[in-house]
Write a structure and sequence with these properties.
Elements: H1 10-20, H2 35-44, E1 51-55, H3 58-65, E2 90-91, E3 94-95, E4 98-99, E5 102-110, H4 111-116, H5 125-137, E6 141-143, H6 151-182, H7 194-206, H8 217-225, E7 229-235, E8 250-253, E9 266-270, E10 272-276, H9 282-294, H10 298-307, H11 324-336, E11 338-339, H12 342-345, H13 348-363, H14 369-382
Helix pairs in contact: 1-10, 6-7, 6-13, 13-14
Amino acid sequence: IYKQEITQTLPKLLEAFSKANPGITVTFEIHPNDGGATNAAAAAAGKLPDIIQAASYSSVVESAKNGYYLDLTKQPIMSKVLDGAKPAVTWNGKLYAVPMDFAGIGIIYNKDIFAKYKLKAPTTYLELQKVAAELKKNGVTPFSGLLKENWSIGHFMAMLHGSMLGAKVGAAGVLSFVADMNAGKTGWEKPIDTAAMFKIMDWYKSNMDPNASEMSWDQQQAAYIKGEAAMMVQGLWALPNAKDHPELKSGFIPFPWSNKAADNRFFADVDSTFAVSAQSTPEKQAAALKFINWLNSPAAVKIWTTDIQLTSTFKGADSSGMPTPFQDLMGSVNKAGSYPWIFSMMPSPTWETAIKNGALGYVMGSAKPADIIAEVNKSWVEN
């Protein structure tokens, strides 16, 4: 698995499966951030784990093309998956992984801090700027930072780019853009105002803790949980680490990059998936498929949504017991729609290196916009 936030809660799911299936034991390894690279190396060596947690879209497609994953199209579980989630695991008309959770990247905010200073959740960029200024005036850091690693700021830049593009061309236009990038017919910078994007990144960094470059996951979480910072730009994967603090009341809103409120939708899509290795022995594959097909059972869905606290992509799954921010996400997406995750559709090396490193390099002052754009375009075409 690569989702480090579920290491404490996943064992409950695995134990429940083993109890329902005597004789099968599931163990796991965690490879945060570089999970894609770790699995690619394992696949090349013929040593993939029997079950793989993979990101959606490109990660699944690349492995399916290489023959690393079993075709799951005819597995009973796939008839239980929401139709809208299936494109994230499809290659050549077949399904190669089970979409597990729908996630959004936006602003997680502390409701009590907002109430204390009589602040409303912002719906436009100007409102967000005013909220940040008011927080600073009262000695509260607006955003809990995470700049010691490249993935979080990579998400931020990808969110801005994808949202600006989605607002301009719509969902169909996003898919056309990806196809044109794959064919070398356009450039990453061409459809949007990249100068405005980088300016928002400057503002975002200026509203973090001065020591944000030394803050990784644990430090970001601690600053938010302690109330030292009022907001953090993250996916709801960041929320389970706060669930041990029932006094902490959080809300979730789209990052309002535009001054037109209707433009500000969640950057949301299928996040993680589970695939079965084509390299495993028939016996291990049979056991892994039992696990995959068990995931839609009431017991599994309850653990997934209540204990692991991730949304479910299965039809009829009950998520009413999930924390408020999850309700905020799904309510907003159902009402206003969302922008798809372009970073999951681009070649993995482009996302893992060109985007993540480019974003971090920019906010740390070691990379210029023109160089980042050139590297993204070069990497996308090459890969």
